[in-house]
Prior knowledge:
This protein is α/β, with parallel strands linked by helices. It has 10 helices and 8 strands. The protein has one domain (about 5-244): TIM Barrel (Alpha-Beta Barrel), CATH 3.20.20.
Amino acid sequence: xxxxxxxxxxxxxxxxxxxxxxxxxxxxxxxxxxxxxxxxxxxxxxxxxxxxxxxxxxxxxxxxxxxxxxxxxxxxxxxxxxxxxxxxxxxxxxxxxxxxxxxxxxxxxxxxxxxxxxxxxxxxxxxxxxxxxxxxxxxxxxxxxxxxxxxxxxxxxxxxxxxxxxxxxxxxxxxxxxxxxxxxxxxxxxxxxxxxxxxxxxxxxxxxxxxxxxxxxxxxxxxxxxxxxxxxxxxxxxxxxxxx
Length: 244
Ligand code: PEP
C-alpha cells in the first residue's frame, strides 16, 4: 500500500504576509494522518515556512537544487542548504525548468546530488501537447524516465505532469492519466523491479478540489503535484482530503 502524497508547488508566487496567512490556515486545516502533505515555497521563504510548519506534519520541498554540491555557482542553491533549512524533498525537472533549457542529464545529476544530501527527489516528466497529438507521449515520457531510472532510489517520487495541463485549466482525464501512470509503472517494473511497486507516482496538471478525487481514485495515481490550487488553503486542504 503506497501512502498518498499531495505536494503544493508555489512556484514564484507569494510574499511574507501572504505566505504567513497561507501556512497558518494550512496548519489548522490539512490532515496529515494518512497522506504526506508537502509545500514548496520559493527559496527566500523556506526558513519562514519551516518555522510556521514546525510540529504540523507538513513537509518542505525545494523547487530545484544545483547539481553541484557547493562552490562558485552564483545564484544556485545547494541540496545541503535545503536540508539545512528543513527540506526533506526537492522538485526536479519541472517542465518550466525544462522549457528554460534544463536537460535530462542535468535532472539526473541534480537527483544524484539531492540523494547524496539526503533529500528525496520528486522527479517530473511529461509530454507537450504537440507530442501527445503526434502519438509520442509515451515515448517522450519513457525517454525522460530512462535518464533517471538507473539511479532511482527508495523514497524517490515521480510526478507525471503533461505540459499541456500545467496552469492551463485543462486536466488530463482520469483515464488519460491512469494510462500514462500504468505505462510509467510498467517501465519501472522492467527497469527497477524491486522499487516499481513502492515508488509513488503523482499526477500534476490543473488538479483542483473538484477533480482531485476522481484522479486519485485511479490505481497508479498516488496523489498530486499541485500548482495554482496550492495557493489557497481551502482548495489545497480539500485536495489533501481527496487523497486520504
Ligand atoms: C505544477 O506547477 O506542477 C502544476 C501542476 O501546476 P497547476 O496545478 O497550476 O497546473
